[in-house]
Fold these 2 entries.
Entry 1:
Amino acid sequence: MKYIISYKKPHNHYIDIEFIVDKINQDELLIQLPAWRPGRYELGNFAKNIQKWTAFDIVGNSLISEKIKKDCWKIQTKGISEIHIKYNYYAAEINAGSTFLDSTQLYMNPVNCCVYIPNRINEACELIVQLSSDYNVAIGLERKLSTSDNTHTFLANNFHELADSPFIASNTLQHSLFVCAGVTFNLWFQGICKPDWTKLRSDFTKFVNEQMAMMKAFPAKQYHFLFQILPYKTYHGVEHITSTVIALGPGYSLMHNNLYEDLLGVSSHELFHAWNIKTIRPIEMQPYDYTKENYSKLGYVCEGLTTYYGDYLLFRSGVFNQEQYFKTFDERLQKHFDNFGRFNLSVAESSFDTWLDGYNPGIPNRKTSIYDEGCLLAFITDIFIRKNSNNKYSLDDVMRYLYTEFALKNKGYAAEDYKGIVEHFANTSYDNVFNNYINKAADYEVVLKDALAYIGCKLSKSTSAKAYEHALGIKIALINNACKVIAVYPNSVADIAGVSINDELLSVNNMQIKSEGTISNFADWCNYFVNADSSKDNIPLHLIVSSQGIVKTIEIQPNVNAYYKIFGIKKSNSVDEAKKNNFENWSKNKF
């Protein structure tokens, strides 16, 4: 089977694809386009990007074809030994999991746009890409020698490998590499940016070495970090076995402060996925079924453990200092405590429901995040194992066991397998965490505090500096220059008074709310009218809001310091030697 990729007018964003299949020995053939892409557990419906479709035999005679599902075609092949399918794909969206074409690059995720034959999915195939002679290609597939400067040919053992091999083709790719434990790691940057190669190689080598040392073996002979650097603010990564695509921006901030920390964080996260989800997989995804939802409740392992290790291994390797790591932990804590969906849908149930409402927040307070909740539960589980084994074992051992006893044996794991492995290394029952916090919607502040205490740390709470958060119980954001309510604390004074999500705030105590850029004066007026020292001295606030196009006045009596606390992790003031040793054993850093 062969895929020939070409294009004529890159500014129109249409990629031309020819799919050639021989050795046909059946009267009808089904041609399938994936309905989703691994790494994002929601339907993608990529077929909506196909404009033209034709099927013909080896000499050019048209074949009868019929679309029988939204992304599946049936072709009449009686007496036909070879077919050619030509179609085009509209590629105008650029993120870490999309396909994109313009005058500067061809960027393709084959899982978006390459069709396959379901009953021949395990057959080898060739990817032939026709490009300008000055283009280079960054890809994880094996390269076949070509006699033409314009044609690049790559080999895949099966459709799964092809689907998992994104590439960037361009004449402006910037490249460097380093070697860890015999594996070559490539850094590719596409877009306007100035990579500091010395700093990048130094930091990447540290966290890559830490991951390799932890897992003992790597699932690929080489690995490619494919960076799409964009001129605007963005943050997105998608994992593959031999590569990751990471979209970041703006390019002018790439090597500076927060964006560089984001680059390190997402790179560490996506690399860990080469083990966790790309090779260590839930039984429901071994192998992937590209035609429909692959339901699983194990998102707290697939994404939660990866989120935990992505930042934690940066700390453990010395790339992040304590302040940088604690900042990432604080972000997880804040998202957890600000999300009241934690009382309604467990992280296991929320994993299952990514297929229902994707990665959007959904209706208010319904679900939790498999990333943030899963991360905190991974930390709790790591400490649970360490505490019960006197620091002999940890979550590291669980991951290594899953890799050697499941992934390397092409076995998927079930939730009970994960639970049993944790119990094996902890040598005690995991029922409390597994039943009451992973599979049940509940407040786990108590077990979180206990886990932090084991390493000499504590959960800190403080009052938000924003009066509308701590005294009214709302959160706001500027949306199209309008100051809108984006969250309401359940049973807060704002909630009781009738404030709703999506209400636009027009005035407070007759003072007009003005918004400019990313700034609104609503916060300043609230801070002015609310006495943060005493609820007794506060007069009611009169808000004028636009709710579903209806303007109304709402009276609210502030309740100072009652809502939306600021959460964080801090070292305890008085810590014994045992807890200091626990911290150092866990973090590989001095207490």
Note: The first strand starts at residue 2 and ends at 6.
Entry 2:
Amino acid sequence: MKQIAQNYKSGELTVLDVPAPACRPGGVLVQSLFSLISTGTEMMKLAEAKMSMVGKARARPDQVRKVLDTVAQQGAVETYKKVMNRLDSYTPLGYSLCGVVTEVGKDAEEFRVGQLVAAAGNEYALHAEYNWVPVNLCAAVPRGVPPEHAAFSTVGAIAMHGVRRAETQLGDTACVIGLGLIGQLVVRLLVASGVRVVGLDVIEERCRLAEQAGAVRCAAPDDEGMAAIQASLDEITGGRGADHVFLAAGGSSNAPVETAVRLARDRARVVDIGKTRLDLPWNAYYDKELEVRFSRSYGPGRYDERYELDGVDYPVGYVRWTERRNLECFLDLIARKEIEVGTLVSGTFPLESASTVYADLASGALKAVGVLLRYPAPPADSTAKPVTSMLRAGPAPAPGRRGDGRLAIGFIGAGNYASAALLPGLAGSPNAHLAHVATTRSLSAFNAQRRFGFTTASTSAEAVLEDETLDAIFIVTRHHTHADLVCRALRTGKAVFVEKPLALTHEELDRVVEVIAETGNDRLMVGFNRRFAPLLTEMKSQFGPACSSAVTRYLVSAGPLAADSWYRNEALEGSRFTGEGGHFIDTLSWWTESLPEEIYAVPGPEKDDVQVTVRFQNGSSGVITYATAGNVRFPKETFDAAAGGRSARLDNFRKVTVWAGRGHRTSRTRGGQDKGQRAELSEFVQASLSRGPMPIPLESLVAVTRATIAVGGSLSSRRPERVT
């Protein structure tokens, strides 16, 4: 299928051929008819992408702070790799469309194939021929609403939520500053609500358009225009001023904020809907005791993954207007002809000409409020599914092992970690062939194919599992999917590499063990890469045989999670330690050359903090301190060992020191952190090709996973837990 995308590093915008998304549970597959270009939000994103690196940094100081924190913790080399990995990728555009349902996923049966729907979301309602959309971001289009008008529904919901935030009443007066697409819709909604409206915009055509929609008076924010608006407000309100001021403008000027206070009455509400500068003139806002409110996108549910992705709705008795209900309400207003959007359409263009349309919008050659992209009409058979869910860079290879002696690898998942830590090493390996990659998002699959040379890209895990040309399957997906995908991959008879954790519960782990016993396929590897790190292996070699009787301590300064991190969904993905702790238990197990036998865990002051004592079968012990409340620039990992008159320390995979006798020896990394991924991958590839022993014995993988899961059990029981 075709999709519009932009390379954030170069600023290039193009129409790409990408694999179509698969239909997943909890949503529907929609074939686009019309999608709306946001002439505000999208144009700002495009302008930002074309900036120099310095310009990008100035535009996103929040991201610069994160980069500097990462440099302090992980070093400049690793940080550079991560930043370039994020920048040199194509990103999607769009968030408002109308289309036809072509496939219905499980738990989305309220929709039907052939139904006309409006869709929302900057990750779901993209400028693409097909999109998978979750149920709570999808709304049925009422009869009589043209699809090109229904494509406005998401932007309409944004304007509607802004109006709701103001809590307007019949007879109120409002001023809308900025009469672009959002501002025009705010005017229409206010007029429909019985509110008298004035507006300000620097473009005269927009002022006239708002007046045609029912605004009392609109003008430019110059001296003459301000005088006219002030006179109109005085006449309407008896000199009191506007009850509400809506900031629907964008840009770096502080003029909208300063203008708002001039036109607002005493104790009025100022609602920020756009993205404008907000340096509030304190004295002026204080004197009028103005109430400043923010409007967050489409309404309640936005940025809540459980609502948007999992379909968990808010009870109407507690949250009357959610994202989806706002979409439905806006569509209903169009259907009842209480809102008119046809006059907002400045042009409709075919998808193929998108690059030219965006260029004309950026240059000003196309002066527009609402711009629609038109897609090919669906076939007469409305049950037809997209045929481009798989994209090959060349002819399909024959089934069976490749004849060139390389390991043919399929990847399920190609997110940030896979793209930064695993795929570069495999792409450069003479013994590996990257054959097939599958991700849930079309552009992610395309980016992985483009950057690392995969022969085939698709959007379905089943496509990789059923690919008979593969020798090995990598599973680098979210944690809750690991155990099931491992079982399915093992049943194919191929070698399997899964990122930690192998399983989240003992029941999941039992299933994996049962499948291995049933199939006889024990060609399994878990991504416990620390034991392969060059500095750590050097430290163990210098420390000597005393490792097996050492007392060890592993300090992990994990830091806080981002507000939108999927790790926060503990009910689905397990605790932070369950997801990451296997790394550290495995490192202690490797160092002591023994399997974990007993776990005792004590909670810390913060929710995710935990102190874990591990007792091993040979009598050794170790302590893991997993802390989340430390300074974000403190080194993430410090490992200490002591035994037989020797001491050793690993400092964040950048330096190791071993003390013995009256002296000590220090080694440092030369090219940034190396946590062992390259060596780990090399050993896995060699073992898979030679059919020799896997890099980590299966017994160890299972024991470490059981020990990691046992940490949660010990925290609950407040007693030591044996690792059975």
Note: The chain has a mean pLDDT of 92.
